[in-house]
Amino acid sequence: MKRGYVRQAIAIEPGPDNARLLRANVALNGLHDRIIVHECAAGATAGTVQLELSATNYGDHRVKVSDEDGAMAEKEREIVTVISCPLDTLCPEAIGANVMLWIDTQGFEGFVLAGATRILANHPPAVVELWPYGLARSGAFPALLIALKGYSGFYDLADPTEFIPMAKLECHASKYGTDYSAFTDILAL
Q1: Whether the Cβ atoms of residue 102 and residue 42 lie closer than 8 Å to each other
Q2: Please, are residues 142 and 168 in contact by the beta-carbon 8 Å criterion?
Q3: Where residue 19 sits, what CATH number does that domain have?
Q4: Fewest Cβ atoms closer than 10 Å to its Cβ: which of 54, 79, 102, 156?
Q5: First to last CA, the chain
Q6: Domain that holds residue 119
Q7: 167: left (phi over 0), alpha (psi -120 to 50) or beta
Q8: Is residue 133 assigned to a domain?
Q9: Is 1 inside a domain boundary?
C-alpha cells in the first residue's frame, strides 16, 4: 500500500498481539484511512474458535482443529478463544472487480473460502497458501477444492512458469507430500 500498488485493504488477524502490531503498523505508516483491520478469524461460520499460539513463530498461530499432538508439538501451544466470521460478512457488499484475495491461514484456507461464496462468485484472483500438512490436519482440503472449482486454474508461485488446470490441484498438492515443512503458494485465476 505504501508503494501505491493497492488502494485499499481489509486485513484479518485473529491473534490479539498480532492484531495490535498490525494496527500500530497501519498507524505508523499513515494508512489508517485505507486499511480496515478486523480482529477475528475468518471461517465458514460465525461464532468462536480456539487459536493455537506458536511461541516461536507469530506467523504460525492457527485455528485449533484437533486435540491430537501433531508434528509441530501443537498440543503444547497456548490456546486463546477468538471470534470467527465468514469472509463474506467482513467485506463490503459492493466489492468490485478490482479485488484480490491473499489467504495464508496455516491449513484453514478451505474453511476461510467456504465463508466467501459471495466474493468467490466473481472469481477474483486469489493467492492461497497450499500447505498439505496443515490442510490434512484441519480437514480443510475438500473445502478448498470445492471453493476453487469455479476457477480455471492456478500458478504454483514456487515455479510460476506453467498455468495448471484447477482439476489438477489435488494431484499437484500431493507432490508436496504431508511433511510439515513442505508448502507453496498458488495464484488461482
Answers
A1: no
A2: no
A3: 3.40.50
A4: 79
A5: 22
A6: 9-188
A7: alpha
A8: yes
A9: no
